[in-house]
Amino acid sequence: MVGLTATGRNTADRVSASKIHHTVAAWEPPVSGLEWFFDGLLALMAVLITWFAIFSVMKLYQGQR
């Protein structure tokens, strides 16, 4: 990738791959109540959308009789 490789010389406009550090926390906080709320809301909407899609297709086929 351009700009992420070392070129052998130390230039100020390039970023060396060795200077990019990803720190991983030794301890992560537990899942908050707000995250549980939005995860539940996402699951509820997935179920609702699936139900509505099935319901719509059923009504379309019932109208063809």
Topology, element by element:
Blueprint: H1 33-62
Helix coverage percent? 40-55%
Strand content: under 5%
User: Which spans have pLDDT < 50 for at least 5 consecutive residues?
Assistant: none
Task: Count the E strands.
Answer: 0
Task: Walk me through what this model shows.
By secondary structure, the protein is an all-alpha fold. The protein has a domain at 30-65. The protein has one helix and no strands. It has one helix at 33-62. The model has no long low-confidence stretch (mean pLDDT 78).
Relevant terms:
single chain; 65 residues; mainly alpha; 1 helix; elongated
Summarize the entry for a quick read.
With 65 residues, the chain is an all-alpha fold. It is 46% helix and 0% strand. The protein has one helix spanning 33-62.
